[in-house]
Design goal:
Strand order of the largest sheet: 3-5-17-8-13-14-15-10-11
Largest sheet: 9 strands, mixed
Number of strands: 17
Distance between the termini: 53 Å
Order of helices and strands: HEEEEEEEEEEEEEEEEE
Helix content: under 10%
Oligomer: single chain
Shape: elongated
Structural class: mainly beta
Strand content: 35-45%
């Protein structure tokens, strides 16, 4: 049935005018009702429209396209991020998380900690789809601590240690100059020099984790800074049978500090 704009003609009477124009009005109301769920305007729910103000809606990011929010009211582009030139950024607060969370590409986790010795990331790591498409994370950590001369950072993949499977090479700059540390260890490790005394010093680290899969070595590298020291490190976990399923946890070397406070940001790059 066609829609008839302005069906009423009060100044131009004709035979059977009332019945004809009321029928046209009923047809118009029927057409308008079809725009609502179940044909009922009382639901207040409008059916999908092709365009809003001339722009189409789609779940696939594209220029001049409206993207819907998900069921949690979040603009989630993770499923199609690799197909899009649109920058994706979403932050997830894992400060009080009790189980590991799977970060999507472009998603960032924040972990605040206060008066803790051991800080879990609570981030699960997926197995890469192939050996040439690694899973990559960027970890930024800012810490204030009460320290003596040492400030050793320990990072535990899968929240555990592995018997001398990790080779590390670290260059640390302190009051006496650059020092080279090269050996095998049971966890990832960075050494910086904090200065003497028990004052609180800031410490910052910018780290990367590269995981090519359980049948390949795992990489950990980056840099750490304090008020008196710079450390640059590159480390490899040689285990080729164990999957890296949890990003793990970190702490300051026992004996250097009892409690640490600060914030960690972890972003999944790929």
């Amino acid at each position: 049935m066609p829609y008839t704009p302005k069906p009423f003609n009060p100044t131009t009477p004709y035979q059977n005018q009332v019945i004809t124009e009321l029928n046209l009005a009923n047809d118009n109301f029927s057409i308008l009702a079809q725009a609502f769920v179940n044909g009922d305007p009382a639901t207040g729910k409008v059916l999908n429209a092709d365009k809003v103000n001339g722009f189409p809606a789609s779940q696939t990011p594209a220029p001049n396209t409206i993207l819907p929010l998900n069921s949690s009211g979040i603009l989630d582009l993770s499923a199609s991020y690799m197909k899009s030139d649109i920058y994706t950024f979403r932050r997830v607060d894992l400060t009080n998380a009790t189980s590991d969370y799977m970060l999507q590409v472009g998603e960032e986790a924040v972990i605040n900690f206060n008066n803790k010795e051991l800080v879990p990331f609570r981030i699960s790591i997926p197995e890469p789809t192939s050996a040439t498409t690694p899973v990559v994370y960027n970890i930024v950590i800012g810490i204030y601590w009460a320290s003596n001369n040492n400030m050793d950072f320990e990072f535990y993949p899968n929240n555990t240690t592995y018997a001398n499977e990790i080779n590390f090479l670290t260059f640390s700059n302190s009051d006496s100059g650059w020092t080279k540390y090269s050996n095998t260890t049971v966890r990832f490790w960075i050494d910086t020099y904090s200065g003497s005394g028990t004052d609180r010093y800031p410490w910052f680290a910018d780290l990367f984790v590269v995981y090519y899969g359980s049948q390949n070595p795992k990489l950990f590298y980056g840099s750490a800074y304090s008020v008196n020291s710079i450390a640059i490190t590159s480390q490899i976990w040689n285990n080729t049978t164990t999957a890296w399923t949890s990003l793990g946890s970190f702490r300051i070397f026992p004996g250097s500090i009892i409690y640490i406070s600060g914030m960690a940001l972890v972003r999944r790059i790929s």
